[in-house]
Write a structure and sequence with these properties.
The complex is a heterodimer of chains A (about 250) and B (about 240).
Chain A (H helix, E strand, L loop, with lengths): L15 H4 L2 H17 L5 H17 L4 H7 L4 H13 L4 E4 L2 E4 H27 L2 H10 L4 H30 L11 H27 L16 H23 L1
Antiparallel strand pairs in A: 1-2
Chain B lengths: L14 H26 L3 H17 L1 E5 L2 E4 L3 H8 L1 H18 L8 H26 L4 H30 L6 H33 L5 H4 L18
Antiparallel strand pairs in B: 1-2
Chain lengths: ~250, ~240
């Protein structure tokens, strides 16, 4: 993979959102999601407002709406749960097209679909506009304990190597006529997972020794300083602030 | 199981319960960091990062369950057997956090719930069972394989029941709990069996080649690593 550790959901675009420092984007996404989750589910207009906010961010970040819609399908299992709710829910029921639906279940389904979708789209926008390395740098600047940011850094650095190793083993299996169709043919796969672990662990030990001999003492040097400016915090605060305003207007109306 | 999210999304469980579990997960992870340092000291970050990458890579590999249906490994029990409960829980949590931030899998506000279920509950159940079973079963690759299979099934089902408990505490809709518990247990037993078969074969492979790397077997090693014998006098 290229510089900056791209990942499958990263969309490299020159946009205002992409240029924002990662920590402000992470915090804005988190606050926005919290506001969405705390908004009572009866406030339909508020959710429309949240969707408009996200659409505005998507336009600013030059992320196509179709791309978002396709990637958002990751929450499909929960949408299926939501579809089942009106039938399985308790309490007062209403008839619709000859079906008996639970009112609480309908609200519940709406709750899951609305909050789930808004959350997934917000996370997708963050992922689309931030590289892996920036994301970890952002977490580090947000004072996430360094154990985690370090583990995550190593994980992301090793990930491509291990994925390549796994790919080579798969090609080796295929070229020896491995063509599994059923779960009970999984033995060769599992044996290669085992040898993948061995290769990985032994590589890890080598890398660790190489690091120790270069002066590693349990922590990595902090990346160059230079966090977000007040202006950048203000820019990204616009999203959660607007969400709070929408939620309050809806609740006090 | 291919592109399907297994992680709880936003809005399934209400805010206060999510916050409580986030605090709980943070406290439990702090404890895991402390214990993991005892296992790995300054090797913690490189080795745990590697195991996390291994879990992540393993989750990207799909295997055929039936024609047209493929699944992937969750890797919690595998990690616990290979690197121990503390490092294992840390690695699974890191994977969950990165998946939530970079792959939009699992809600940001539900991260505490997901970590509690999969990284804490699942690995704890898996490890307790591994520790108990290895007392009875022979400490051979075959015994370890049986242990890994049983622990995988139990750990996956218990993690799924963690969701049921959280839903009971703060579900946003009234549902009959026995129904959810039954469905979740049924689906996850099937997932657990697939997981168990692979975890068993994997740890058996590792146990045959490098038994010293299998954390779960460390306590039972009969011959300790040879101490360097001082040259010359001193031997009683």
């Amino acid at each position: 993979m290229g510089a900056g550790h791209a990942h499958p959901l990263h969309l490299d675009r020159p946009s205002v959102v992409h240029r924002l420092p990662p920590e402000v984007k992470i915090l804005a996404t988190l606050l926005f999601t919290i506001v969405v989750v705390l908004t009572p589910r009866e406030e339909f207009l508020a959710f429309a407002g949240f969707a408009l906010l996200l659409a505005a961010v998507a336009v600013l970040a030059r992320v196509p709406l179709g791309w978002l819609a396709k990637r958002a399908s990751i929450e499909l299992p929960f949408v299926l749960l939501a579809v089942a709710l009106p039938f399985a829910g308790h309490g007062e029921r209403i008839g619709w097209l000859g079906m008996s639906l639970s009112v609480d279940g309908l609200y519940g389904a709406w709750n899951i679909v609305a909050k789930g979708t808004l959350g997934v789209v917000a996370s997708l926008l963050l992922a689309a506009s931030t590289t892996m390395r920036d994301l970890i740098l952002g977490l580090d600047r947000l004072r996430v304990p360094s154990v985690f940011t370090q583990i995550a850094t190593f994980m992301l650095r090793y990930l491509d190597i291990l994925a390549e190793d796994a790919r080579r083993m798969r090609i080796a299996r295929l070229s020896r006529g491995y063509d599994p169709r059923f779960l009970w043919q999984v033995k060769a796969f599992a044996v290669s997972v085992g040898s993948l672990f061995l290769r990985a662990y032994e590589r890890g030990e080598r890398v660790y020794l190489a690091m120790v001999s270069r002066g590693y003492d349990g922590r990595l040097p902090r990346p160059e300083a230079g966090g977000a400016t007040a202006g950048q915090w203000a820019q990204s605060a616009a999203l959660p602030a607007a969400a709070v305003a929408i939620a309050l207007t809806a609740a006090l109306r | 199981m291919d592109t399907v999210a297994m992680h709880i999304a936003n809005g399934i469980v209400n805010g206060p319960v999510s916050a409580v579990f986030a605090a709980f997960a943070a406290a439990a992870l702090a404890f895991c960091v402390w214990r993991a340092r005892a296992d790995l000291d300054d090797r913690l970050a490189p080795m745990a990062g590697l195991v996390a990458a291994f879990i992540f890579a393993v989750q990207m590999l799909n295997f055929q369950v039936l024609p047209g249906v493929s699944g992937h490994l969750l890797g919690g029990t595998l990690a616990v057997i290979l690197v121990g409960p503390w490092v294992g829980a840390l690695c699974v949590s890191t994977v969950l956090i990165v998946q939530c931030l970079l792959f939009a899998d699992g809600g940001l506000t539900a991260i505490g719930l997901n970590i509690t279920n999969m990284a804490l509950l699942g690995t704890a159940a898996g490890y307790l069972l591994v520790a108990a079973l290895l007392r009875i079963l022979p400490k051979t690759p075959a015994g370890l394989g049986v242990t890994a299979f049983a622990a995988s099934v139990v750990s996956v089902v218990i993690a799924s029941q963690g969701f049921v408990a959280e839903y009971w505490l703060g579900g946003t809709t009234q549902l009959s709990l026995p129904a959810i518990a039954g469905t979740m247990a049924g689906v996850h037993t099937l997932i657990g069996i697939g997981e168990g078969l692979i975890a068993a074969t994997t740890v058996m492979t590792v146990a045959r080649v490098r038994p010293d790397l299998v954390y779960a077997l460390r306590r039972f090693r009969k011959v300790p690593v040879a101490e360097p014998v001082p040259v010359g006098g001193g031997a009683a």
